[in-house]
Amino acid sequence: MTLYSKWSLGKNIMFLAGVVMLICIFIPWSNVTDLQSQLVGSLSPIYDGSEVESMVDMMQRANTMSNLRWLMLIPMAYPVYCLFTERYLKNVCCISALVAILYPILAIILGFRYINATAWIFALAAIVFFFGTTMANPKAASLPMPDPSAVPPVNGQAPMPPMQPPVQQPTQPQQGAPVAPQAAADIFCPQCGERNKADARFCAKCGYPLNNQ
């Protein structure tokens, strides 16, 4: 039982995963604010300068990746278009879905400590979205059968019409030709009803004269 009867299972998976991905785009992927100076001041007594600098860099990367999450609408555009059409380029659709997987994974790697669960959910939904694109197959275009009568002209000459088998006319006897005599029909005996040859003079059964001339 599919969500939309005109869609295949792959397209339904794409639709559900795409809705989850779209919701995750509207939620920030990082909880880092611009108050990094206050964070540095509070962490300075605990960590040395290099550790604080590395944490600040990670915060900046997480904040940048979160702000650029809207770029995911670009690779999602073509797969969403493919949901509502029958014929499309499946390879392009799969590559677009693969890009949607790589970006959240990159964001999680660069800002691991400060990327929240929204990016993880987006990455999982993107993986499901990619498998949906591999399952959905565009319909093959049916090629029209060529019309044998529509033959293009050769060397500027009109094509020859298709040859029809000759129609055999019923034969009639020629005038003056001798007609073969038809064989005389057998005769029946008027007394016993026995069937006799046409040239028989007496009945073969009872001997009654047949008066055959």
Number of helices: 6
Biggest β-sheet: strands ordered side by side in the sheet: 1-2
Structural class: mainly alpha
Order of helices and strands: HHHHHHEE
Q: Radius of gyration in whole Å, from Cα?
A: 47 Å
Proportion of residues in helical segments: 40-55%
The main pleated sheet reads as:
2 strands, antiparallel
Annotation, overall tally of beta strands? 2
Distance between the termini: 94 Å
Strand content range: under 5%
Q: Low-confidence stretches at least 5 residues in length (pLDDT < 50)?
A: none
Could you report the average pLDDT, rounded to the nearest whole number? 77
Give the overall shape, derived from the CA principal axes.
rod-shaped
Can you tell me about this structure?
- This protein has helices at 9-25, 36-43, 49-67, 73-83, 90-110, 117-135; strands at 187-188, 195-196.
- It is mainly alpha-helical and 213 residues long.
- It has a two-stranded antiparallel sheet with strand order 1-2.
- Helix 1 packs antiparallel against helix 6 and helix 3 (49-67) packs antiparallel against helix 5.
- The chain contains six helices and two strands, in the order H-H-H-H-H-H-E-E.
- Strand 1 and strand 2 form a beta hairpin.
Short description:
The protein is mostly helical and about 210 residues long. It contains six helices and two strands; from the N terminus they run ααααααββ. The protein is rod-shaped and about 145 Å long.
List keywords for this structure.
single chain; 213 residues; mainly alpha; two-stranded antiparallel sheet; 6 helices; 2% strand; rod-shaped
Topology:
Blueprint: H1 9-25, H2 36-43, H3 49-67, H4 73-83, H5 90-110, H6 117-135, E1 187-188, E2 195-196
Helix pairs in contact: 1-4, 1-6, 2-3, 3-5, 4-5, 5-6
